[in-house]
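WARN retry 2 of 3 for item q-0093 after timeout on previous attempt; input resubmitted unchanged.
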Amino acid sequence: MGALEILLLGLALSADAFAVTISNSFVYSHEKKSRLLLMPVFFGAFQALMPLLGYFLGGLAAQLIEAYSGIVTLVILGIIGGNMVREGVSALLHPEDDEEVSTGRLTIATLVFQAVATAIDAFAVGVSLRAQSVDLIFAVTAIGLTTAACCVAALFVGRRLGHLLGDRAEVVGGFVLIGIGIKALLG
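OK item q-0093 returned
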């Protein structure tokens, strides 16, 4: 597998992280830039870590993780997304309470859960990397950096969308996360 194929693999693996970053960036538009910049760091790190784990754990857990990855992703993103939809609808129906609802924080725990959920498929990629002659350090670094770069771009897109969506941003963001979870379950 050459450098171009690994780069394309990194782009494909980063798609879910890109979408979640867009969603988070307009839902949590009140967060400091330093907090928002944790998304590319977390998503990139987990996208690099999971293929590494898949490479070394290979056959031990690969079948188990592959069998349940869609369910785990749906549960994690479904809970987070459902909560976002609930809070967003509440804010739209009760604008007088908007100050309380809008103080939701993008927590480290939320970032970890989202990073794991969006990187589970990268574990299987690590298993396949083991079967090929690949420079593992280059591959996981390229995958991680590609994901981080895509997430930085997603921050800009999400900020623009957030301004366009206004008060509906949290509801839309929640549905995006739920949609990604459903896609993971079905695909």
